[in-house]
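Regression check, adenosine-5'-diphosphate case 725:
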Amino acid sequence: MPEKLSTSVQYLKSVGPKRAESFSKIGINTIKDLLFYFPTRYLDRTTLLNSVKVVQHLIEGYQGEVTIIGQVIDSEVHYYHKKQIFKVRMKDASGFFECVWFQGAKYFKNVFTTGDHFAVSAKPVLTKYGHLQFVHPDFDRLAEKESKDFLNTGKIIPFYRMAKELRETNLGDLSLRRIIHQAVESFSNELTETLPDHIIKEKNLLALTETVRNMHFPKDYPSLEIAKYRLKFEELFYLECLVALRKKFHSEKKKGFSFKAQASPLKNFLKSLPFTLTTSQLKVLSEIRKDLESSKPMNRLLQGDVGSGKTIVALISMLIVVENDFQAVLMAPTEILADQHFKRIMEMMKPFGIIVDELIGGQKKSEREKVLRNIREGKTNIIIGTHALIEENVEFQKLGLVVIDEQHRFGVMQRSTLVQKGFQSDVLIMTATPIPRTLSMTIYGDLDVSVIDEMPLNRKPIKTYLRGENKLPDIYDFIKSKVKNGYQTFLVYPLVEESEKIELKAAQTYFDELSTNQLKDLRLCLIHGRMSWQEKEKIMFEFAAKKYDVLVSTTVIEVGIDIPDANIIVINDAFRFGLSQLHQLRGRVGRSDRQAYCLLVAKDELAVRSNQFNFNFDYLSPELIERNKSIIRLNSMVKYSSGFDLAEIDLKLRGPGNIFGTQQSGLPELKYANVIEDTKILSNARETAFKIIESGGNLSDQNNSIIKKTLKENYSNHIHFARTA
Ligand code: ADP
Ligand code: MG
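Current build output:
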């Protein structure tokens, strides 16, 4: 980086050491950092209809948003059905208008001081009294002079996120804008380009310097769009370079053997099952089989909703490999899940003379040694365990297939680790977290994807209800009445893990209270987060054997646990869980042909409001989403049963940025692009990246040396993702 850009912001006019320190708190140290601190939005003439009068004339049938600049006259708080409504009256040179909020009166009262100038944007409406009104508008505070300038010249005003650290040093919007303006004017020329020339030309992109200038102070809206496009393209391009590099890395290793799927053992096994496979399961199996038969290593992701029957698909794949005299491994995220898989699979494999062993924590040393020896000598055909234990110095005689269950629990990185440890075999990754197509293309861009998109035929949809805490007595009666029909119940309490002591006490209190009062005639058991997995396992096992009617849990019931007679799940304080967690929890029931129930419990008022809430994402502003997240989550759980629908909603609630949590995927977070909205740019960037990497991928080539340099400089934390370092 040229020196000037790495100078501290301190030396910019009107910054100084104090403000430099507060900039540093929000991650801005150098001038370069500041150049990349882009506005979060702009006040733009194209949507500005500059007077109340104009808007009033236009309003009939007008669908879009408008922006108006006005001055606050006064504000007031109304009460309607015990709810606060906040109203601000404002004016401009031609007339009056008002802004209304149905929430947050306390906050807005402090924002809209009489005499201040604001630009407000929303869809305009007329009240029954004929007043121009904006409901929940976006708004920006303007200095008086600015608002005049803006109206007169029509230039675009950038708005920066004003962090509280900056505000504390008396920095206002206007002065921040000036500081940044100064930096852009004097230093943007110093930036070095981060994309190769041929890509910029071919894709008609804006150069980096222009991009940065346009992002801050665009002369018009189209030039802003061009700058944004360039940033998005670049970001997605480098993301896809990482994905392409990883794909190249994986496909370069040859396993050198191909398995034959022999018909008769498979037929016999299928005959031994108490059900027939769904069409979806069969389709996926044939995809896996092709991979196994090919001598290229399999890298396949198997997606299927909770309860769709992924395990059996994995088992049949392992069977194919074992029939070819190779070993297969199944890795689970938790000990309980590993042990459950082990017990079931061992039972199922017994008649076929296939030896199954497990590797989990808490095994006796001698036991473990024996298992390890059997694996080494090839006596064991199928090994089941937690990934940690399997990765640790296990020597296989002839490993053919690795299956990773419930992948979302440990992220894609796992696979790279496996390969690094010399596992050259086929890999099948299973996940219940449905990932929209565009996203899976990106995160798992180097994997082939198979989807189980139907549930076993015998399943009835789970009935989900949301109830207030005042309905708990009815819920307990319901549980009791169902015990007679052999139903079992999970009762879940989310506990914030404050301290071990408090958690233990709270868990015990719930349990004692329920067993002496509300559910005293039933047989209750308890698991909590402070038990060892063996203790939990013992209770789960007894619960599965119907020794108990109700399992009280203060920990998330392990993903993947399969207890067919547990057909009621009650989730207390349901608003505390995320959407995918709620869906996982609900997936613990409804695993047989009997009707299952999921009862979500929340504070009375929240339950009432959530049940009444009617939403359509197209009409929800980000603010409304932000303020109603828990309501939307609870409401969606009642409305939707498919994990796919819920995942789409979850994505909107969390924003796609979160999906790229580095822990999850090992990929960089996206700052500019949105993989849901920018799919065209994504495929364009992807194609470009793959072409370069795949065509020999020589990044030292002069044309592409910028790519190598940028990857090194800007993506060094993620390069391990591609395993090419
Ligand atoms: P998941 O996909 O969530 O891992 P599992 O593999 O645990 O689901 O399967 C859930 C339950 O459905 C298990 O009890 C399994 O035996 C059963 N199952 C799997 N496939 C079928 C099928 N085709 N018909 C009926 N039941 C099935
Ligand atoms: Mg499973």
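Comparison notes: Confidence is low (pLDDT under 50) at residues 409-413, 660-664. The first helix runs from residue 16 to 25. No diff flagged against the previous build.
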